[in-house]
Amino acid sequence: MKLKEILNKLNFTNKLYEEEFLDEEIDESLDEEMSAKDRTFFKKMNKKVVACMIIAALVISSVAGVAGFKYVKAKGQDSESEPITIEATKQNIEKTLSATGTIISAEESGQFATTTSSYPVEEVYVKVGDVVKKGDPLYKLDMTTMEQTLSYQQQALNIQNQQNEISQQNANQALADAQRNGANQINDSNRNLESAKQDQNTANRNKQNANNSLTAASNSENDAKKEMDAASATLSSAQQKVDNLNSKITDLQNQINNPGTEQVQKTDENGQLMVDAEGNPVYETKTKDTADLQNQLSQAKTDLETAKTELSNAQSDFESKHTAYKNAVAATESAKQSVQSAGDSVSSANRSVESAQSSLNNTTDSANSNVYTQSQAIKSNELSSKSNTLSAQQEIEKSQEELSKATVYASQDGTVTNVNIVKGQTYSGTDAVVIDNVTSLKATADIDEAQIPSVQVGQKVQIKTDATGDEVLNGTVVFVSPTATKNSTKTTDATSTTASVSKSRATYRVDVQIEDANENLRLGMTAKMTFITASSENAIAVPSSDIKTSDDGSKYVVIQTKDGSTKNVTVTTGISDDFYTEITGGDLKEGEMIVESDIDENSADATLESMGTDGGIYFE
To answer: Is 547 helix (H, G, I), strand (E, B) or coil?
Structure first.
């Protein structure tokens, strides 16, 4: 039986379980038409692919259809007496992701005038299909109004320049006047300051002379005081001497007038002092002798006259010295007054100098300020003139730039694929003319959010189109959008081989650079793209449906030993393609015979679950 006839058997009607058992009939047909090797492969395919198709159809079918499938399966199990095995061999495995996209140009540009206003189209130089080179003219705009505007702007700029020149001349004259007036005022202030400094010098000299006079007067006063003090001491000494002599004379006179008695030791006729029998002096009372006193009195009176003469002389000398001292004190006071007056003159002169200096500073500051103000006015006028000129020039440059955009040129080599303008049309949009490089193509597709993590820049992609037939074009992922490009609603109908699900999901744009050239490719063609997301070469591989999971989560396969018995062998799995899974570790050896698994309800559920909730088969 041909494959087409086999698939026609899968009409999934309620007659599915009536007369023939599909599994047995397919097996018989395969035995008639295929070799032993092909039969083994197709049986395996029958167990997985056809079963998956049956399960998907049963999900959409009625409950009666599901019951019919279970009936067929049960019958098939009864007809098998020996387990089917397949050898564990090494092969290349590629994990792929399929998508449908569109052929686009790798270089596409929309050509349009970047003018700030809209203008009528004066001429269109190209049409769809024309091949152009970069720099070729595409179309031209009618910019008569802008040419008139530019002429007005240039006339206004000339008038502005004349006004700027007049303003600059006035500002320069004002600066010259400020500099001249300021210089005159500063010269006058300098002369006043110089005169005040001369007066200050004169006052300082007078003060110095007064200080010198005061010093001399003070020295004279000190000398006069010393002489007066010496004369005073001499006078006091002379007076003391006179007083002492007067006291002495009075005392001598009293002694002479009242001599009195005195006890004196007796003397014998020989002039020897007398003593009694016991040897004690013998005294007698006698009137004192005054002769000596008379001599002393006479001498004292003579000395008194001499002392009085000395006292008179000392008195005269003291009075002279005292008068000289008073005169010296008066001279010192006069000198002090002169110093005070000279000091006042110096202070006044200093104040005059300070006032003149302050006046000079103020005059200088005022003159400089006026000059600075006029200088700033010149700069401000220059800046204002430049600003006005720049503004006018900027407007002229904008107008000139606008006029330079009258003709739109091709920005790349390529073929004109769209012309959206006609002569006389006022067009201000983008993509007036579209140019595509048809020799460098890309394929672009929107990948579902569940599958986009598997796609990376640099991955290899196989591309096929209806126009290129069976030829596989190689490509490389060059762009993966980081954000969702749109929301797609995936809905499958009753003839789909996957479950029917309607759900809004995000998709992400992926661009693939096509590396192989083919002259049959055209922009906009539908591209069937197969992304190779992972690969493993010369790896031990087993049918994915034959891998089981134990209660502890470890994975294993059932192998048939040489004596015909079976045992479980633990395995570690790697990547998977549509049918096979890579074995990366465990106890399975190349060449061992793996017992094929039967499809039961649990495996059917697992198959549905692997298809994903929205009908697409996702990778774990």
So the answer is: coil
Contact 356, 192 (CB under 8 A): yes
Check: CB of residue 586 under 8 Å from CB of residue 570. Answer: yes
Confidence of residue 250 (pLDDT cuts 50, 70, 90): very high
Strands 566-576 and 261-265: unpaired
Measured in whole angstroms, the distance separating CA 79 from the mean position of its chain's CA atoms is 79
Residue 472: the pLDDT is 94
Kind and range of the H or E element at 198? helix 144-257
pLDDT at 357: 92
pLDDT value of residue 450: 92
Pairing of β 555-560 and β 548-549:
antiparallel
- Given a contact cutoff of 8 angstroms between Cβ atoms, the answer to whether 444 and 101 are in contact is yes
Q: Is the dihedral of CA 265, 269, 270, 271 positive or negative?
A: positive
- Selected residue with higher pLDDT from 515 and 29: 515
**pLDDT at 618 (0 to 100):** 36
48 dihedral zone (left: phi>0; alpha: psi -120 to 50; beta):
alpha
Place of tokens 């069976």: 470
Task: Give 356: exposed, middle or buried? Use CB within 10 Å, 0-12, 13-18, 19+.
Answer: buried
Q: Report d(CA 291, CA 309) in Å as an integer.
A: 28
User: Hey, which bits of 231-378 come out as E strands?
Assistant: 261-265, 283-287
Structure tokens at 577: 């393609």
Q: How many CB atoms lie within 10 A of CB 561?
A: 10
b/e burial code for range 207-225 (CB count within 10 A of at least 16 → b): beebeebbeebbebbeebb
Q: What is the pLDDT of residue 21?
A: 39
Mean pLDDT of the chain: 80
The burial class, CB within 10 Å (0-12 / 13-18 / 19+), for 585 is exposed
Start-to-end CA span in the chain (Å) = 36
Global pTM reads 0.44
456-485 in b/e form (b: 16+ CB < 10 A) is eeebbbbbbbeebeeeebebebeebeeeee
pLDDT in tens, 549-604: 999 999 999 999 888 899 999 999 998 888 899 999 998 988 899 998 765 545 44
- For CA atoms 298, 304, 305, 310, give the dihedral sign: positive
Q: What's the mean pLDDT in 466-494?
A: 79
Residues 64, 68: Cα–Cα separation, whole Å: 6
